[in-house]
Amino acid sequence: MSAHPSARPLESELAEAVQLVRAGGVVAFPTETVYGLGADATNPRAVARIFEIKARPRFDPLIVHVESAAAAQAIASDCPVEASRLAERFWPGPLTLVLPRRAETIPDIVTAGLTTVAVRVPDHPVAIELIRRAGVPIAAPSANRFGSVSPTTAAHVRESLGAAVDLVLDGGPCRAGIESTIIALGPEGSTLLRPGAIGIEEIESIIGEVGRPQRRLAPGAPAAAPGMLERHYATATPLYFSGDAPRWLDRGRCGRLSLTAPADAKEYRAIEILSASGDLREAAAGLFASMRRLDALGLDAIIADRFPDRGLGLAINDRLDRAAVPKC
Ligand code: AMP
Ligand code: MG
User: Fold this and answer.
1) pTM of the entire structure?
2) Which terminus of the chain is more solvent-facing, meaning fewer CB atoms within 10 Å of its CB: N or C?
3) Three-class SS of residue 5?
């Protein structure tokens, strides 16, 4: 799966990160999905700093990262059988499970007061070592300002959060490059809360059909589930799907975000091809970096392909959909 050899931070930096987490600090660290902004999940004051640094609303709960499925059982209880089957198949890996929470270990600020907790075991040696050596579960959202494009390199983290973070561990570019798939498991069955780096088809092959809540609600209505906000992952430059881009836009002042080389490439000022061979895994890995590069050019608009709605295409479309200018 890896297109990049992964770099390793120095042992002294890792040791410092461990000390910082233990002391209630906030540390950015690599995972296989995107860079996380981590703090001791059992320390409400440390977690409060994550919300401040990101300017993230307190109603949007965080994912708790643990070192193993056994450690997940210390923070979630009454797990349905589907949870162990999914954990066995996909952990460590980019799958987050939303499960009944053990309130005695995870404070309210992490879960936004919900009776459930989101948990995952990351598949990255630096993340696992940090969690293990700190000896606590680590609450971590993506290491960017709330609503903006997620970071897939340490440089992205420094650009958007810089000095606000106590330390940025550099583990090279993230392998998957797109966030985890989030599945809620409860008495009422299973629900896909966020498409992500593991295709929903793969998950359904293990636990059967997974429900999809409706995300698009009436304008102004609250989100169907926390985090399912309509606008997110957004570039500062307006982004349109190619079918929806206004005709009056001067293509010579626009950027094109495309899976493979598009026929109309010459019309655009800049172009980002996500995978010359049309590979969705490669496309997902480079998506956020390509969005950032186009965003830095001061273009009038970014015009993106819509991807096939299967496998990783579902997750890519979800991110582009939320970045896009809403259709009126
Ligand atoms: P991020 O940390 O930016 O990757 O986003 C984490 C996502 O997990 C957000 O969309 C949250 O709303 C979602 N999430 C975390 N905890 C829960 C929970 N208990 N129930 C539902 N969604 C959750
Ligand atoms: Mg995020």
Assistant:
1) 0.93
2) C
3) coil
